[in-house]
Design brief:
The chain contains 16 helices and 11 strands. By secondary structure, it is of the alpha/beta class. The chain has a 6-stranded parallel sheet, sandwiched between helices. Helix 1 links the parallel strand 1 and strand 2.
Length: 421
């Protein structure tokens, strides 16, 4: 990875769950040397579901690829001192743990004035939050799923965690650029809830209430403000069809041969289907014309017609179908490689989705053995060896303490619990 985009960048990560580990991994997959430090024996997320029969967390592996893993007794003065030493040596730390006492910016900055620290927290006023609780507060669950105002539905994808992770990585790189220009360090604070509110504001949800006094409602799979919804095929599959531009609408008319029927509908409803507004206003009537056309054809027939005319569409499929039959989720896609992970074996693993022109395909690296890099990192970064190293890391250095014989029982939904203690 010596020729990777971020080669030479050092980051210490003290984290758990999604936002901070994902942000650190995004940097590691571009070549940064990211050292994750956990409490000896394993951090809070070491056994998050999904787990293998032997207790190995595929969740933990997925969020820590390309990093080095160090276990220290962070409850002891010696472990805290060693963690501080590693942070000071690297000059950059990413955390979603409470940045207090030995992990406070003030304490660390006294030892290195140009230190960069990015601290992720739950809310702007420092209350705990996870993706699900932030989702609930945004109001979006009332717009998701069936049109039932008494039954909010959270989305499964931890979108605010993911966006916070990428924002954190961006923030660290921005601060590092400033440090190169000015020599100054930086404390950056990032709230999971603020990331959600930032995006809500960017997409017009806040202004829509304040300026238009208009509140959206759940519309199932209808695409707000344009035309798009799901339809059933003859062979029991479902497809999502959308038209956000005049060209896409023209393509849909050409693929289905329904241009004349839609023209009559336009006249009857005094509409112009070249506009988003009228396609949205007349969406039920448009769908009533399109649904029988889709229902009379198999998925293969629909795909053939839509692809020939470059219609904006996609088939609904299960995760199993994605993994087992979709070429996008295979080694045919340069994003993926089949990589061997410690304790589990080889499986399809994504690298960074960023593709730099002229660069070789991403070097998709495995997750580390939990705690398995402790001795190497301490020796390399702090220069300790022999008895000093033994006293500091003891028997925890090989990561064996992170692999209990029996993984704790968990509800599968717990893998969605995120940050901030």
């Amino acid at each position: 990875m010596s020729d990777a985009v971020l080669a030479g960048l050092k980051v210490v990560e003290i984290s758990a769950f999604i936002a901070a580990p994902l942000g650190g991994m995004a940097l590691a997959q571009l070549g940064a040397d990211v050292v994750r430090i956990d409490q000896a024996g394993g951090g809070l997320d070491l056994h998050r579901w999904p787990v293998t029969d032997s207790g190995e967390s595929l969740y933990w592996q997925g969020l820590n690829k390309g990093k080095r893993s160090v276990f220290l007794d962070l409850r002891s003065p010696e472990g805290q001192q060693a963690a501080q030493d590693l942070i000071v040596e690297a000059g950059m730390v990413l955390t979603n743990m409470p940045a207090k006492a030995w992990l406070s910016y003030e304490a660390l900055r006294r030892r290195r004035a140009d230190l960069i620290m990015l601290a992720i927290r739950g809310t702007h006023d420092n209350r705990g939050a996870v993706d699900y609780t932030v989702q609930a507060r945004t109001g979006l669950p009332f717009l998701t799923g069936p049109a039932r105002p008494d039954a909010p539905v959270n989305q499964l994808l931890p979108a605010w965690d993911a966006l916070s992770a990428m924002t954190a990585a961006f923030g660290l790189l921005a601060a590092e650029r400033r440090r190169r220009e000015t020599g100054e360090g930086q404390l950056i604070e990032l709230s999971l809830e603020d990331v959600a509110l930032w995006m809500m504001g960017n997409l017009g949800y806040i202004a829509e209430i304040q300026m238009l006094n208009r509140e959206r409602r759940a519309e199932g799979n209808d695409l707000y403000g344009a035309f798009g919804r799901d339809f059933a095929t003859l062979d029991g599959r479902r497809v999502m069809v959308a038209a956000l531009t005049p060209r896409q609408w023209t393509a849909l008319c050409a693929a289905t041969g329904l241009g004349e029927a839609f023209g009559h509908l336009e006249k009857a409803m005094q509409a112009d289907f070249a506009t988003d507004a009228d396609r949205w206003r007349c969406r039920q009537a448009i769908a009533a014309v399109l649904a029988p056309w889709v229902a009379e054809r198999t998925l293969a027939d629909v795909a053939s017609a839509f692809d020939a005319h470059r219609v904006l569409w996609g088939p609904y499929q299960t995760v199993r179908e994605l993994v087992e039959t979709d070429p996008a989720c295979s080694e045919a896609n340069p994003l993926f490689a089949r990589v061997h992970h410690p304790g589990v074996g080889a499986y399809l693993t994504p690298g960074s989705p960023l593709q730099f022109a002229g660069a070789d395909p991403a070097d998709v690296r495995p997750s580390p053995e939990p705690g398995g890099d402790t001795r190497a990192v301490i020796a390399e970064r702090l220069g300790l060896s022999g008895a000093e190293l033994d006293r500091l890391v003891g028997g925890e250095a090989d990561g064996s303490a992170g692999r209990p014989q029996d993984a704790p029982a968990q509800d599968a939904s717990s893998s969605r619990t995120n940050l901030v203690p």
